[in-house]
Amino acid sequence: MTTASGAGRALVLLRHAKSAWPDVPDHERPLAPRGRRDAAAMGRWLRAVGYIPDQVACSTARRARQTWQLAQRGLGAAPAVVFDNFVYEASAGQLLGLIRHTPVATGTLLIVGHDPALPELARTLAAAAPGRAGTGNDAARTAMLDRIRAKFPTAGIAIFECAGDWAQLAPERVRLVCFVTPRELRPPAA
Fold first, then answer.
1. pLDDT for 56 beyond 50
2. pTM of the predicted model as reported, rounded to 2 decimal places
3. CA distance 128 to 171
4. Most buried among 38, 106, 119, 135, using CB within 10 Å?
5. Alpha-carbon dihedral angle through residues 57, 140, 17, 127, given to the nearest 10 degrees
6. What is the C-alpha separation between 41 and 34, in angstroms, rounded?
7. How far is CA 103 from CA 10, 56, 107, 109, 169, in A?
């Protein structure tokens, strides 16, 4: 498999969509209506830009599982999915370790996770990613990193293209190619 741009591997980090706050344990919080809409929209967007995962690692938290289920409908694909409590409890470093154990045959990996670990991983990878001086993309990459640092909202997606095998994944071997939020996909108010 290849990335949407045709080279290497892609890592897609999806923060769960907006959740409701009923009187239930944190692990059992469902999506709010806006979260349901945003999750489906992000799946459609992933399909439109060509980042269809081969494998998904999803937190076992209800809001994360619902995010994936709705995003999958928008994606129109049925990749292999692992619902893992480890993703619910992991730190950014632990998520990186999980990524490094991804099967070699996986071209695009999607992780559906939580704040603070998933946004922290995105910031770490984006900040250490090598720049390509003179390519004209430096300003765009810097702007995406600034946005990730400022806020990685619910249902936000960061996409990294990776060199080498998953086992060798390191911040200096990835390139931030996209950061998109549900707000950017909503039609302007009339």
1. yes
2. 0.91
3. 5
4. 38
5. 50
6. 11
7. 13, 12, 9, 10, 12
